Amino acid sequence: MENIKLENLTLIEFLELISGYNEIKEYTIKINSTNTKTGNVGEPLEVTGRINDFKELNTNLPQLEKFIQELENENNHSYTEIEIYNYLKKLTDNFSNDEVKIVLNEMEVFENMELFEEMNEVSELEYKRNGWEMPLVEYKNIMTKKFDKMPNYKVMRNKVFPFLCWNFYRAKRLLNDKLKKDNNLVELQKFELQARLISLRMGNKILDYEIKEIEKKLECKEDINSKITLLNDYIKTLHQSQVSCVPIDEEINAKGNATKQLIEWLNIELDFWHKKKGFEKQPKQKNIQDELWFNVGLFFATGVIPMEKKMLKLSVNQLAKDLGNTSFRPYINQSINHTHTKGDKNIFLYNDKLLEIYNHCIKNKIPIEKEFQDKIQFD
C-alpha cells in the first residue's frame, strides 16, 4: 500500500501520523453481532481500545481483522526527510519566520496535551503488565507545600517508546534550525549596520582634529585608516554571507562574534586617539560635509537609514537620535515619506545634492546602495 500523501493532511493529521500517535491512541469500532443460535443480526457492539488491545482479543471477526489491517497499513509507513521537509516548506510558506513560530507552538501544544498524555497512559499500563519497577520523581505539592512522589513518565516513555517519535522530533528540529538561521541572519545584519555606522563616524571624526606633531598625525591616520579598511572588509564579507544565505551555523556565529569584538575594539581605539595628547579640537571651516542634508544623504546612500528602519523598526525621532543628531529628523522624515513642501528637506528632490553625495562616496571608496543610485539622474 502506498504512503499517505502528506500534502493532503492538515497539520494535526500530519503530527498524529509522524509522531506515532495513531499507533497508540484509542479507537472505537462498531462490530455487527449475530445470534449464533438463531442467526439473527443484533445491535452493533462498540469496541474501544488500542491496536494491540484489538489484536489480543484473538477473535476471528472479519470486521475487526480488517480494521486492524487498515490501521497498520496507515501507520507502518516511513517518510523520508525530504518528504517531511517539503510538507513543512509548503505549510509555512517557504519557512516564513512567523509561520514557523506558529507551527512550532502548535507542535508544543500537541506534544504536551495529546502525545505525552497518551504515551504516559500506555507506559504505565506496560510497566504494570510486565511487572517493572516504576521510577518515581519527587515534586513539591503546591497545596500542601510538601514534597510528594509521582511516576517519572519521561523515563517510562523512553523505555516503552524508544523510537516512536523519531519523525516528529526530526520535523521539530528542522523548523528550529530554520528559525535559528533566520535569527542569526538578523544578528549579522545588525552587526553590518553597526559596522557601517562606526566606519562612517571614524572616517568623519578624524577630520575634526589636527595633531600638533606630524609624527602623531601620520601615526593616527595610518592606524585609523587600517582599521577602517579592516572593518569594511568585514562589512563586505557579512553582506556576501547574507546574500548567499550562510550554510553553516558555526560560520555565522564566528563572523558575528568577531565583528562584535571588532566594533567594540574600534570604539575603544577611536576614543583613545581622541583623548590622546597631541589632539586639539580646531574650529572647522564650514564645508558641504557639515551640512545636515549631506550627512543624512550619506546615511541613505550607504543603506544605514533603510536598514535601521526595516530591521529595528525605529521611529523617525529614534532614527535621528540613533544617528547622533536630532536635527536629522525633518530630513529623514521628508526623504522617507517623499514629501514636497515649502522649505523642502527631502534630499531626493535635489539631483545636484544626490550627485554630491554620490561623488563623495566614489572618491572615498564608500559602498553605495543600488536603490540610492537608481534615484540619481546622470547626464
Q: Quick gist of this model?
A:
This protein has 379 residues and is mainly α. It is built from 16 helices and six strands.
Could you explain the architecture of this structure?
The chain has three domains: 1-87, no CATH class; 92-164; 176-373, no CATH class. Helices cover 62% and strands 7% of the residues. The protein has helices at residues 11-18, 21-24, 51-56, 62-75, 81-91, 97-130, 153-160, 166-205, 214-244, 249-275, 292-301, 304-311, 316-322, 329-337, 351-363, 370-373, and strands spanning 27-31, 45-49, 136-140, 147-151, 209-211, 279-281. It has a two-stranded antiparallel ribbon. A hairpin with a 6-residue loop joins strand 3 (136-140) and strand 4 (147-151). Residues 202-218, 241-252 and 277-284 have low confidence and may be disordered.
